Amino acid sequence: MTTLPDRRLLLVHAHPDDESIGTGSTMAHYAAAGAHVTLVTCTLGEEGEIHVPALAQLAAAEADQLGGFRIGELTAACAALGVSDHRFLGGAGRYRDSGMMGMPTNGHPRAFWAADLDEAAGQLLDVIREVRPQVMVTYDPNGFYGHPDHIQAHRVAMRAHELATAEGVAPAKVYWTALPRTVLEAGMSHLTASSDNPFDGVDSIDDLPFGTPDDQIAARIDGTGQHAAKEAAMRAHATQIPADSWLYAIAGNFGAEFMGVEYFTLAVGERGPGGGPNGWEDDLFAGIDVTAPQWAVRLPEQPGHDLADPASAGDGPQRAAATAGLR
């Protein structure tokens, strides 16, 4: 029998690389602290742009092999973050990257955007039953910035939580990724003179599809100690994030706050004790008794599903956004 750690965190992301860009520091922070971190990725990211010229023919319109290649990138990213439990929703290739909103790819027969909500939520429910996470992280109703797969990931995660609640196995808390307006304003100001400014032409943060008022933020996770792990995970996604991306410039010059610290709103559950001038939580598990009986779980060891080995984890039951690699 395999006994999981007392603290268990589940993250639901749309494409490979979303986990590293949006929550990489948080994932590495909790993994390093001994928590069990489970990542569920909903698609293979088949419609992503390719920033490695030698791999250009893997694109969807050509060999259509990018999704398979990105499995390897995600495996390497998870290893960098110290995350050993990763699954694709419904198995690798069950759901396809839908592309940007309004694109013909939204109508692909396997497009995640068109997935049956209860079927997809049932597949995520299987993971919740198995792992019994106390905390789940996903996107807000707009998918952070409006990508159809991000929106669908939100819907699937929240529906799975409803189903899990009916069974008495739901995570105690659900957080949505967020970026405080003050942090966004500081980042925009820092990049004003950059030759690779993703906010070029944006006059106000009100023109962006993301940015959360500070008083709506519930948690601030300081993952600066894992900043290098997050950057390594991002570099593992080489097809999606150019080697000279502005993200790495921030990592080198402004990384402690903009890259190493991640923020969340609390969608479900009771807010735990916090600190600092805003009273934000500094721990997603704040206020949860992780040793309570309802969280007890022991998993039978299964051949081919080594929770210590990302490679064997198995498949388990626009400019600012686009240039940031937000796909």
TrEMBL record:
<comment type="similarity">
    <text>Belongs to the MshB deacetylase family.</text>
</comment>
<comment type="function">
    <text>Catalyzes the deacetylation of 1D-myo-inositol 2-acetamido-2-deoxy-alpha-D-glucopyranoside (GlcNAc-Ins) in the mycothiol biosynthesis pathway.</text>
</comment>
<dbReference type="GO" id="GO:0008270">
    <property type="term" value="F:zinc ion binding"/>
</dbReference>
<feature type="binding site">
    <location>
        <position position="15"/>
    </location>
    <ligand>
        <name>Zn(2+)</name>
    </ligand>
</feature>
<dbReference type="GO" id="GO:0010125">
    <property type="term" value="P:mycothiol biosynthetic process"/>
</dbReference>
<feature type="region of interest" description="Disordered">
    <location>
        <begin position="301"/>
        <end position="327"/>
    </location>
</feature>
<dbReference type="GO" id="GO:0035595">
    <property type="term" value="F:N-acetylglucosaminylinositol deacetylase activity"/>
</dbReference>
<dbReference type="InterPro" id="IPR003737">
    <property type="entry name" value="GlcNAc_PI_deacetylase-related"/>
</dbReference>
<feature type="binding site">
    <location>
        <position position="150"/>
    </location>
    <ligand>
        <name>Zn(2+)</name>
    </ligand>
</feature>
<protein>
    <recommendedName>
        <fullName>1D-myo-inositol 2-acetamido-2-deoxy-alpha-D-glucopyranoside deacetylase</fullName>
        <ecNumber>3.5.1.103</ecNumber>
    </recommendedName>
</protein>
<dbReference type="InterPro" id="IPR024078">
    <property type="entry name" value="LmbE-like_dom_sf"/>
</dbReference>
<keyword id="KW-0479">Metal-binding</keyword>
<dbReference type="Pfam" id="PF02585">
    <property type="entry name" value="PIG-L"/>
</dbReference>
<keyword id="KW-0378">Hydrolase</keyword>
<feature type="binding site">
    <location>
        <position position="18"/>
    </location>
    <ligand>
        <name>Zn(2+)</name>
    </ligand>
</feature>
<dbReference type="InterPro" id="IPR017810">
    <property type="entry name" value="Mycothiol_biosynthesis_MshB"/>
</dbReference>
<keyword id="KW-0862">Zinc</keyword>
